[in-house]
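User: Please predict the structure of the protein below. I'd like the answer in structure-token form so I can feed it into my own downstream comparison script.

Assistant: Understood. Taking the following sequence of 139 residues as input:
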Amino acid sequence: MNLMLDTNVIIDAVAERQPFDVTAKNILRLFAAQSFNCAITASTASDIYYITNKYIKDNDEVISKLKWLFTVLDIASVDKADCINAFDTGIVDYEDSLLTICAKKWKANYIITRNIKDFTNSSIPALTPDDFLGRWKAN
């Protein structure tokens, strides 16, 4: 199964944003232990670094957490065509639209996000972290 993670899920885990951090950490632990193909986009990686530094305020700790994260997750490329095609998805938020384009190119089965409503027009179905964990446990 291929999964694409939205920025908010990663930041919840890395920056320990309550009350979302527990579920986000469970998602990452599951991905580290199971045979899922999980990715973030290359543009998301830089966003995670920037935003997480605002929460943690210890650059060495942020780097350590992100290095671990990058051992668990793949990084999906973002190219010029992706950036242009993101204007035509029907998704209002450009970052979410770009994530959808990359998820499709990466052949993701689902996008995992806390903001399901932002992916209403996505060609890839979106699940909340809780919904994904519930589906995985049911199988």
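That's the full token string. The CA atoms of residues 3 and 38 lie 5 Å apart.
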